[in-house]
Amino acid sequence: MLPILMLVSILVLLALGVPIAFALGLTALGFLVYFADIPMGLLLQQLYLGTNSFPLLAIPLFMLAGSLMNYGGISKRLINFALSIIGMVRGGLAMVNVVASVFFGAITGTAAGASAAVGQIMIPAMKEKGYSPSFSAAVTSAGSSLGIVIPPSVPMILYGSISGLSVASLFLAGVPIGITIAIGYMVVVYIISLKKDYTFTEQPFTFKFFIKSFLTAIPALLVPVAILGGIMTGFATPTESAAIAVLVGILAGIIYKELTWKGFINALNESVKNTALVMFIVATAKILGYSFSALGIGQMMLEPLMAFGDSPVKLMLIASLILFIGGFIFDGTVMVLVIVPLFLPLVQATAIDPLQFAMVVIIVWAIGQQTPPVASGLYITTAIAKVSMLQVSRYNIWFILVLFISLMGMIFAPDIMLYVPKLLIS
To answer: Which helix (H) or strand (E) holds 275?
Structure first.
């Protein structure tokens, strides 16, 4: 009964327009005071402990790296490079959108950052070339979810901070899975382009254009190389790699001669605001998680699920369903910080691979970014394209299908999906 009451309380506060962080904190505070009589000093301690984590230090640094990318001229170079690679096939400009999202996902670490950066450039360009605005918005929104799966991923950093799983192993697992999803997206783009008869050539392939765009994109491409290279070689932790990414982002902006002092200050302001938003939610979610433990809510939810303890697949399907429903109600950050901790004891007590469960959570988070009412990727791209969410959803459903197939692959064939990551980790 308590879990339902707490959920209803959070939903009522959200419906009244209370910010997410306050809705979580007030609910936890009210139930702890009424049912557990916990000293206020202990709650303040939990609020502090929620953000006192070294891996979380990577979040503001990756957000700053993403902001520097926008102000330092990196965006245009990456898109031109993507255009030189795949801009000559049917639906090429839409595929460029997907490839650009892969690059941006490897820098920004968030879906919102990727959709805003790519959308501002690619949606107007696609509309000018004859693509429908709703399709342009759908491709951009779907591509933004790659910012969740492909490292450096803020969701992976958050997951690692609450689960104790190595952020480096999560990052390495995300690379091949993210690339697989991107290939699936491009298959969808090609099929829709055939159906809609997008027959014109966006950019004929020329070796000269490829070399030129590659050379100008080298400083931009050094950002993901610095991040993943530092982690894979053991030269740097994910947090240290984030600091290197910021340094490379600044140097790239200087090389391109587009990062002005004003742009640098704006990048700092953006990253501070976005970090404050995420970390405030993290802190209050810690109090809510503590309330679950103090009130025994985790055990209440764990007992009925233990009946499926001998079948990891059934447990994963049930967990995915609960997380999927949570994605309809909550922002992905809240879902991971509040719901996932309830499942972690179950993962530890059964034969579920912790890395497999982590990637299931990340993919479900990516699906949640594409499904209203909580769909930050859609909100941003529909605003840029000036179309309704219903119009975009007609196309977006096919990209969600790709994510769903990836989710089923992770549940039913984890050895295949995680073969390369585990090879790299070992």
So the answer is: helix 261-294
Residue-wise DSSP of 118-166 = HHHHHHHHHHHTT--HHHHHHHHHHHHTHHHHSSS-HHHHHHHHHH---
Q: Quick check: 67 and 267 in contact, CB under 8 A? A: yes
CA distance 155 to 333: 7
Among 48, 58, 47, CA closest to 271: 58
The pTM assigned to this predicted structure is 0.82
Using CA atoms, how far apart are residues 135 and 57, in angstroms rounded to an integer? 37
Residue 311 · residue 13 · CB < 8 Å: no
In degrees, rounded to 5, the angle at the alpha carbon of residue 364 between the alpha carbons of residues 58 and 85 is 70
> What are the start-end ranges of the E strands in 188-296?
none
Is pLDDT above 70 for 254? Answer: yes
* Cβ atoms 341, 50 nearer than 8 A: no
Which residues lie closer than 8 Å to 319 by C-beta, 6 or more apart?
343, 346, 357, 360
Mean pLDDT for 131-147 is 87
